Structures are given as C-alpha cells and as structure tokens.
Amino acid sequence: MAVIQIDPDKLITEFEKRNLIKGDVSEAMGHNRNYMSDTIRRKTISKHAVVFLHKNYNIDLKDYEVIQEGKREENPKREERALKDMTDKQMYRLMYSAVYHAVKKAWSE
To answer: Helix, strand or coil for residue 20?
Structure first.
C-alpha cells in the first residue's frame, strides 16, 4: 500500500477546524479508533485515507502533506533491522503481525 508523508500538526489543525475527533473519523473509515492516531504518530497516511478525508470532510492532501525538495515522497523506506538486533518486544510484534495476517487471510478464503 502506498503511503504519503504528512505533517501531523497540520492534519490535527484540519481536524480541529472541523471539530472532528480522530477516533470517530477512524471508525467512519471502518478502522479501529486508534487508526488516525497511529497515522499521525507514524507521520504517514495511506492513499485510501487521503481519498476518504477529501470525500467526506473536504480535507485536501495539500493542506497536510510534507513536500520535500519539490516532490512527493511516496513509499518511504522503512528502516531495515536484522533479526538479531531486534528486542524481544519487536520480535513479538513481528511474529504476532505475521501470524495474525496469515490467519486472517486463511479465514477469508
């Protein structure tokens, strides 16, 4: 999924202008209540979320996007980390996520 770098302060300002609550917007999108909070924390947003915010709340991407050196940065590279360098908690999250998504995919088939 393609993601776009955002300025979290600008997105929060747009929410405040419209008296929107992050948890309510997240649920309206069909996600859990923490989805927008996680988006703001990561400083990235998915394209489907951009479309949803524009369509339902008239929040344009240009109002909260980070533009670096005159171009949009899509698909920011994630930090690669060797398994041996991971903490126990990071390893747990990795394994949990992998198993969760595999089981979810198997159940949907």
So the answer is: coil
